[in-house]
Model the fold of this input.
Amino acid sequence: MNHMKFSKHALYRGLIILALVIAPFNQSFAATCQQGGGDVLSDLPPELGKLLAENQPQEKICEAPAPIELTKSTQKTRDFKVPTFQGPVHAVNGRHVPDEVIVTLRGGAPALDAFALTYNLTVRETKVLSILGGLLVRFGIPDGRPVAKVRASLIHDPLVIDAVPNHIYELNGEDKKLDRYSLKNSGILEAHTLAQGRGVKLAIIDTGVDETHPALKGAIMATFNGLEKVPLNTTKHGTAIALLAGGAQDEFKGAAPQVSLFIARAFDKTSDGKFVNSVFAILLSLDWALNQQVDIVNMSFSGPENKLMSQALKNLLSTNVVLVAAAGNGGAKAPFSYPAALKGVFAVTAIDAKDRIYNKANQGKYIVVAAPGVDLLIRDKDLKLTFKSGTSYGAALFSGICALVLEGHKNMDLKILQKNLRTTVKDLGHPGHDKIFGYGLVRARDFVARSRP
Done:
């Protein structure tokens, strides 16, 4: 509780200083600020907060390149249009780092230090991102001002494209017990007679992955570390996702045993056991995936809507990349979960061996499809068996199934892919689309067959 008391004193002191400094020359600005609604230190795992608060500025990059153009062979050549923030500044929703703001700047912001000084911010990290077409900066807020108030001041600056909270996201999985059924119930074994995922690039944004696992030998083409300052504490969740999507071991093969895996580490485990991290690491990972020219991106995590992440994902969609996300493990009454709720993303929920919904799965009109995700059997590198449950794992299986569909047809239009899915699922729940099961249970063999010319 001491850190809560400290944060309040720092906040009040910061607001008083802010008023004294700014009021004489910019009273109109003060009138437009609004109190943020999400600045709660108790919501942030203490270990993560400490790591993210380290003020270790990176090398300044003063010129941002133009957005990359991908090769014609992949038919992913659209330029990205980065929108300017418009409309009123609303209260911040969702958990986020309480003393940080993430900003995209035009032209690389040649006077970054002067910019930071103007707004009483500290530069904690800078990266040039192709996926957002500009310079991404993680600014620290040293005087306790609410994130929403800082955003309100920044968005009026002509150098600023957008400013958002550094939201926290959580992986969607847990351990349970039962037996293996997933490859049979979803038709994956039958689909393997038609496709194995050859030549398809699947990016997994998750924890690190145990590259020594025998079932992943030769499957991982490249890796990326979005958390350079954070020690590697766990690989369990990411390894399980990789095995379900693309494990090649005969006895416990994944959905697409010959898919090429690209692993981006954007999460780790904190001292309180939560799998969480910030949107900054996710943005770096998405940018890396774009530059690897992947065909599918698996995102087995959930959190609040974030404008920069949404824009990055829209840019990926514009290049015809298949985006798959876990629906969320918040339960039937939980709010919509992102990135799954973003239009164009395949939001995957989880069901058990009897086609019953996972009891912790989110519900909502954004749910697209159901896949096995309860009590899935995983074999670790020491041949020990574990059982996993969560919408994370349903998403992993569905990502692998998409790799089967795209084998030999990597340029398939996303609208055709979506149509083929809708016409081949097993309807569950109410007839047609519903908020619990989406369109229904994916049937891999039919999905793959329908997608062939």
